[in-house]
Write a structure and sequence with these properties.
By secondary structure, this protein is an alpha+beta fold. It contains 3 helices and 3 strands; from the N terminus they run E-H-E-H-H-E. The chain is 37% helix and 21% strand.
Length: 94
C-alpha cells in the first residue's frame, strides 16, 4: 500500500496552548512531515486527511501528554495540514 505524506504546521493557538503549560519553556512553531498509509477501495482524499488529523492528535497525546479532542475540527483549530507535493527518500537508490 502507498503512503500519503502531509506537512503539519502549528497555528498561533497551539503555541498559546503550549505557553500555558507549566513546563513549556520556549514554545516555537514547528513543521512536521507525517505519513499515513492510504485507505482501501472507496476511501477518498477527504477520508485520508480526516484520518491523518485524528491520528496526529492521538500521536501528540502519546508523545507529549497534550490531550486535545481527537477530531478534525479540533485539529483545524490548532494546526494546518497540507499534502506534500513530493516525498524524496534520499536513502533509496534511483
Amino acid at each position: 500500500m502507498e503512503k500519503t505524506y502531509y506537512v503539519v504546521s502549528s497555528k498561533p493557538e497551539y503555541l498559546d496552548l503550549l505557553r500555558a503549560q507549566p513546563e513549556s519553556g520556549d514554545a516555537v512553531g514547528q513543521k512536521l512531515i507525517v505519513a499515513i498509509t492510504q485507505g482501501g477501495f472507496g476511501q477518498d482524499v477527504r477520508d485520508d486527511e480526516r484520518q491523518a488529523k485524528e491520528r496526529f492528535l492521538e500521536h501528540l497525546f502519546y508523545s507529549s501528554g497534550i490531550d486535545l479532542p481527537r477530531s478534525a475540527e479540533d485539529f483545524d483549530r490548532y494546526f494546518t495540514l497540507e499534502p506534500a507535493d513530493e516525498f524524496i527518500d534520499l536513502d533509496e537508490e534511483i
